Amino acid sequence: MLAARWHPPSYDIRVENVPVPQIEDPDDAVVKVTLAGLCGSDLHIYRGQQPITKVHITGHEFIGEVVKLGSNYGPNAARSTSGRPNLYATLSVGDKVVAPFTVNCGECHVCRLGYTGRCPVGALFGSPKLDGGQAQYVRVPKAGGTLYNLSSPASWSSALTATSDVETLLENISDSSLLLLSDILPTGVFAATQLLAHPKVQPMLTGRSWPSSLNPSSPTIDLGSGLLTQEDRLLTIAMIGLGPVGVCAAVALLDALVQKGLPYRIVAIDINQSRREKMEKVYEAIGSDGKGQNGEFVVQGLEEAKETVAKWTGDVGCTGVLEVVGNNSALTAAYDLARPFGVITSVGVHAPKNVPFTGQDLYNKNISFDFGRCPARAMFPMAFELLVKRQDVFGKVGTESSLIDRVVDIKQASEMYRAFDQGQVGKVLFDPWDQA
Ligand SMILES: [Zn+2]
Ligand SMILES: [Zn+2]
């Protein structure tokens, strides 16, 4: 089969003929890949920023069709008797599936809590530990816990199956759109969800001062100047980094704020002008049901954004900051923009060994930090709902407002990695079967 493979030490992707992966463990599935994504985090390995020497198949974003299942699949694996995830009983050859970017067993303590991105037996696709999906076929370990079965509406969120004509719904969503479920859309939804769920944001959400905001049945504490005003409850949020994940986070955040009926002010920040323009086009393309009438959304460079936040908040700073870059200048900006008792949610993949502030800096501002990888499998139902709802943004390829720039033959992988690394193309998908 054809596969894109990384070769050490850096900047060397080759499309090569390699053996088709086989079932190695009874929990495995083999998936025929219909589309695979190229992602910003692929560049960490590409650039040789990690101490890796093993040649391996790249890519952690893919969608495809199940072609082989290990011996642990079948009706005898029903949850009622096996206690295992339902998919071991229901997954069939021919099913259309999308995988999160990491394997997760779906049955350990960590997975059951929903923290699937850190399953102890997990692995990242497209790493030395596990070959990736930028290939014609990919082996999926623990597939019964990992895969999301797009052919089985019973496994989707109840909100979708209750309100939609499921067949029409699936017919109307392209594979290129569904591929966004593998990483960038769940990661965006995760960032927005994590921020809005933070205890320090609850006074704005509930209209009750902290700590009574944490307990709806407790008496409201009046500190002497009355209860929270509408102005007090206005959320001011900064987003740093407007690459594809940042755009997904913005769409998810806007949707969540509209669902909650909350007024907002959002400043979306990137140093790169073409990314800012993309964000503006996406915001224009979002229907009014996805951004409401009750908010202000501006796209700016960092210095301008600092002035905007100072003006909006009387120099207090942002309630929350989403950091979607993964370097120390972005973290420094996040710290500067956050208010005392502010929350920073960081989903950028961090390469630097240190963070750019001290414990004293954090203490002095009562900053809360959330770092880390999205538990993508756990986020799938929410991400899928947003994908269906926001086809005005996520449904297109190659337009001014689409996240996906183009779909190309996988044979162009080497060239596309180079162009993507140099910022000459946006998000690219590989078609492993386009032998034009
Ligand atoms: Zn990715
Ligand atoms: Zn697990």
Q: What is the top-level CATH class of the largest domain?
A: Alpha Beta
Which class of secondary structure composition applies to the elements?
alpha/beta
CATH topology of the largest domain: Quinone Oxidoreductase, Chain A, domain 1
- Identify low-pLDDT runs: none
CATH architecture label name of the largest domain: Alpha-Beta Complex
Keywords: Metal-binding, Zinc
Domain Alcohol dehydrogenase-like N-terminal: 26-143
Cofactor: Zn(2+)
GO molecular function, one term: metal ion binding
Describe this structure in words.
- The chain is built from 18 helices and 16 strands.
- The protein has two domains: 2-183 and 375-431, Alpha-Beta Complex (Quinone Oxidoreductase, Chain A, domain 1); 187-217 and 227-371, Rossmann fold, CATH 3.40.50.
- The mean pLDDT is 93.
- 46% of the residues are buried.
- The chain has 436 residues and is α/β, with parallel strands linked by helices.
- It binds zinc ion (2 copies).
- One zinc ion binds next to helix 4.
